[in-house]
TrEMBL record, chain A:
This is Acyl carrier protein. Its main location: plastid. GO terms for cellular component: chloroplast. It is found in: Plastid, Chloroplast. One of its GO terms (molecular function) is acyl carrier activity. Carrier of the growing fatty acid chain in fatty acid biosynthesis. Belongs to the acyl carrier protein (ACP) family. The lineage of its organism: Eukaryota, Viridiplantae, Streptophyta, Embryophyta, Tracheophyta. HAMAP family: Acyl_carrier (MF_01217). It comes from Hibiscus trionum. It holds the Pfam family PP-binding. InterPro entries: ACP, ACP-like_sf, ACP_chloroplastic, PKS_PP-bd, PP-bd_ACP, Ppantetheine_attach_site. Keywords: Chloroplast, Fatty acid biosynthesis, Fatty acid metabolism, Lipid biosynthesis, Lipid metabolism, Phosphopantetheine, Phosphoprotein, Plastid, Transit peptide.
TrEMBL record, chain B:
GO terms for molecular function: holo-[acyl-carrier-protein] synthase activity; magnesium ion binding. This is holo-[acyl-carrier-protein] synthase. It comes from Hibiscus trionum (Flower of an hour). The keyword Translocase does not apply. One of its GO terms (biological process) is lysine biosynthetic process via aminoadipic acid.
Length: 136, 312
């Protein structure tokens, strides 16, 4: 029965997650066989990448720029996990948001990096990385 | 039988989908829905039953009813439209499988076990808050983009163009003194650039907007047109690579339209070698409500060619 307040779909939630753009894993190939490297791992040759989540202030600033671009009501929830597309951003919105972030943080975002931004958190993490690189 | 209260749930029966003829080479079929015209709950529920579980989940994740409806209509439009081109049997739109190519561009995944004969169909969709469009071609890739004519950018247009467009395009836009005209020319350029990148299907980063220029060129030569086709007075649309401006991207053809009086639409398709290098792009357009009606709008005011199309 249709609800009187708005659309209500009877969708059953799925437990399996749907991964788009699955990239095939590549093994190390030696001709036709796949082998693992057997040399000893020397200290110093291990590169640890510690991914730090962006500071809350950065996330908040991104949220506010997104809200402004998409003209979202103040009470609408925008968090680090919010996906741009789910909030209604089309490609022009996304590009404008990136431009807004560049101006706000004094950074320059390459198209390659911009393409990988899916959530607010992604944008915030990228900003901090670029700001960090600028300072270095 | 108690017939005092007719309480049986009445499910509106929807007619089967009307089959379609494939587009001919160098022809685009453009289908569009105006979401405000789709109000029936029964119809929306029927559409939702066509979607895969993943698609339904995606629709569910959209924030708010309007966005959910838009996402639902987009998937329903693609599924029903592609299904209708299946020639040998009644195609169930629910059976179609889709995947993304390596760069994220959606395409049909034809599998033998579905009793479908693979069709050389290519499609691309675009939507705004007031229109959902799907372009279909055979043999060659297609990209489309639609945008409301009155769309305003939050940023200053020239600042935006300086950041993202090519120097020539910035020059063209800067030379326009009327702000409304400047805004409309900006939107036209944006849709054309988007359509081109979507047609190539390699993602935004493979072809940053700054690396190519879209320009309009008046046609000085009038070719012979078969009787019955509407000849557009509009200009040619040329795509030039910034690296090699003397060698325009000759294997891609772009066209620009005004749709339903409210939108600019850009279509970009690869030229079909078999059809001939200079075969003009043809367009047939319909306004549709899947399962309900198709209205062919080619040659009417609902579809005005602004550039690049010769036959409608």
């Amino acid at each position: 029965m249709a609800s009187s307040t708005g659309l209500s779909f009877k969708f059953s939630p799925l437990s399996t997650s749907f991964k788009q753009n699955q990239v095939p894993l590549r093994g190390i190939c030696n001709g036709n066989s796949i082998s693992l490297p057997s040399r000893r791992i020397r200290p110093g040759s291990l590169r640890l990448r510690v991914a730090c989540a962006a500071k809350p202030e950065t996330v908040d600033k991104v949220c506010s720029i997104v809200r402004k671009q998409l003209a979202l009501p103040q009470d609408s929830s925008v968090t680090g996990e919010s996906k741009f597309t789910a909030l209604g951003a089309d490609s022009l919105d996304t590009v404008e948001i990136v431009m807004g972030l560049e101006e706000e943080f004094g950074i320059s975002v390459e198209e390659e990096s911009a393409q990988n931004i899916v959530t607010v958190q992604d944008a915030a993490d990228l900003i901090e990385k670029l700001v960090g690189q600028k300072a270095a | 039988m108690n017939i005092r209260c007719f309480q049986r749930n009445f499910c509106a029966a929807f007619p089967p989908l009307v089959p379609l003829q494939l587009p001919s080479p160098m022809e685009t079929h453009l289908w569009y829905i105006l979401p405000d015209e789709v109000k029936s709950w029964g119809l929306l529920n029927h559409y939702s039953e066509l979607l895969s579980p993943c698609e339904r989940e995606s629709v569910n994740r959209m924030r708010g009813d309007q966005l959910k409806k838009r996402a639902l209509l987009a998937r329903a439009l693609v599924r029903t439209t592609i299904a209708r081109y299946q020639t040998n049997c009644q195609m169930n739109p629910r059976s179609l499988k889709f995947r993304n190519n390596l760069y994220g561009k959606p395409e049909v995944e034809w599998r033998n076990e579905d009793n479908l004969s693979p069709l050389p169909l290519h499609f691309n969709i675009s939507h705004t808050s007031t229109m959902i469009a799907c372009g279909v071609t055979v043999n060659v890739p297609i990209g489309i983009d639609i945008e409301e004519k009155q769309r305003r950018t939050k940023n200053n247009i020239i600042a935006f163009a300086q950041r993202y467009f090519s120097p020539y395009e910035v020059k063209v836009l800067t030379a326009i003194s009327d702000p409304q005209v400047q805004r409309q020319e900006f939107i036209k350029l944006w849709t054309l650039k988007e359509a081109y990148v979507k047609a190539l299907g390699k993602g935004f980063s493979a072809l940053p907007f700054k690396t190519f220029t879209i320009r309009f060129r008046d046609t000085t030569m009038r070719n012979f047109h078969p009787p019955g086709t509407t000849v557009s007075e509009a200009s040619d649309i040329i795509v030039e690579s910034s690296d090699d401006p003397t060698n325009p991207a000759n294997n891609w053809q772009c066209a620009l339209l005004e749709v339903a009086g409210s939108h600019y639409g850009a279509i970009c398709m690869e030229k079909d070698r078999i059809a001939g290098a200079n075969a003009p792009m043809k367009l047939t357009a319909w306004k549709t409500v899947p399962f309900v009606e198709d209205v062919c709008v080619s040659g009417t005011d609902a579809v005005l060619a602004l550039g690049g199309i010769i036959g409608q």
